[in-house]
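Quarterly update, task 2.4: zinc ion-bound model.
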Amino acid sequence: MRACVLTATGGTDHLRITDVPDAPTPQAGEVRVAIRAAALNHLDLWVMEGLPGATRFPHIVGADGAGVVESIGPGVTTVREGDRVMINPGISDYTCEFCQAGEHSLCVNYQLLGEHLPGTVAELATVPVQNVARIPVLLPVLGFAEAAAFSLVTLTAWRMVVTRAQLKKDETVLIWGIGGGVSLTALRIATLIGARAIVTSSSDAKLAAAKELGADVTFNHRTQEVAKEVRALTRKRGVDVVVDDVGAATWDDSLRCLRRGGRLVTCGATSGPHVSLDLRRLFWHHWTILGSTMGNAAEYAEVVRRLGQGELRSTVDRVFQLERTRDAFERLGKGEQLGKVVVEI
Ligand SMILES: [Zn+2]
């Protein structure tokens, strides 16, 4: 099968479009999906730079994918050959203590497609049947590109905003860096809840687009001092919730923006993973700092249900052909996108 593989760590120079052995024939409880579109994530860029833990080369990149069920393993009853499906890239063992408690993204053997396992930028991918969901029928039609763009960021943003931070109607949330898929989805969810959303970007064009998507207030974090502006806007009170997947570059300002008793939720560290924390401020202000990664099966079912109601549609930035996957990654790496960058297979 054709696939986009990484031949070594060290960036997009090591990406190749090549023939590799087909994804394995599905075993009991597995399905093989003929991928029609794969969406890129920042995770893929980390994998290219070399995450801790051995990756075997050539390594097929990509976590998000959508396509058609090509074949099914024994015992699979919930989907059939020919079904249009999208893939939840978080693969659990479905047996450990946390899986049994329904918390699949806490699985002790949690693995992600494209990171620990072969990815989705390929003609075929084999996954547990629990990791596929039928693409809802919607108008305007939900195509493979949009379906591929859905799973990782929507699941991540839903768990962050709804399950972990428990953002409520009429509360105020600050969301950093609105171009990225998680941030954009967090904005959509905040709007759905009826919360007031403050968003930031370094691009005025992206801020204008965010306003169209329901942002109440926008700040350009390149030209404005976000913490000062947020404190002025909230009359020094601060916001109820901060959604921060930027990390080192925004951490101090995130805390400056947080009200007494506020919640900060993080799922990423695109600008660096190490931050400082003055414990006296943490306890004095009764802050809650929440980590979050991906989501469990119930949360995935819920976001798919919401998608079926037309409430959580993805924003596709641009679609590239497989042969141009490197250009797609370069767009993502430069942060030029608004929404998801997708590769058609
Ligand atoms: Zn488990």
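Highlight for this quarter: The mean pLDDT is 96.
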